[in-house]
Amino acid sequence: MSNDERTVADLLDRQAIHDVVLRYCRGIDRRDFELVRSCYHPDGIDHHTGFDGSVDEYLAWVRPKLEELEGTMHHLGNHLVELYGDLAISETYATNVHWGHPEIGAFTSGARFVDLMERRDGRWAIKERWAVREWTRSDTGRMIAPEAPGPRGTHGESDLVYTLRERVSGLL
């Protein structure tokens, strides 16, 4: 493979890995647990604050926690990928907002997703994830009602991004 071909292949791998992290955030925020599952290999492992286990165990653990909340929003920042053939280390900085928790109200946390990614059969996915919590801030009492009628985020297939996808795919 020439240097130019290697550069293009590396860029495509980095983009595919970044897309995994983005899909994970969409899945968590929209409570699309099959989308979250698709970000991991079937034998994937997750380490979150208060949890260590398989992807299936993680989904069983996180689902009720998310269902207690009105919503979450994950914002991604710095993203660095180190490629090692079919393995990669991906580090992504995130600011995660959670609101509507009955006991603790709203909170924002700074975190890093440190992922061991693996390419299997041409597909990049999480082999092992560490959600490293850097800080947490209480935002209780800071949330206000929407200022006017308009589109609102929902969970699952009723969210705008899913209905728009269905509309566009119907045009193809």
**Strands side by side in the biggest sheet:** 2-1-6-5-4-3
Question: Could you tell me the strand content as a percent range?
Answer: 35-45%
Helix content: 25-40%
Cα end-to-end separation: 36 Å
Shape: globular
Number of domains: 1
Number of strands: 6
Can you tell me about this structure?
- About 35% of the residues lie in helices and about 45% in strands.
- Strands 2-1-6-5-4-3 form a 6-stranded mixed beta sheet.
- By secondary structure, the protein is α+β, with helices and mostly antiparallel strands.
- The mean pLDDT is about 95.
- The chain contains 4 helices and 6 strands.
- It has one domain (about 5-170): Nuclear Transport Factor 2, Chain: A (Roll).
Offer a concise description of the structure:
The protein has 4 helices and 6 strands.
Question: Can you lay out the helices and strands and say which pair or pack?
Answer:
Blueprint (H helix, E strand, L loop, with lengths): L2 H28 L2 H6 L1 E9 L2 E4 H13 L3 E14 L2 E15 L3 E16 L2 E16 L21 H12 L1
Parallel strand pairs: 1-6
Antiparallel strand pairs: 1-2, 3-4, 4-5, 5-6
Please name the defining characteristics of this protein.
172 residues; alpha+beta; six-stranded mixed sheet; 4 helices; globular
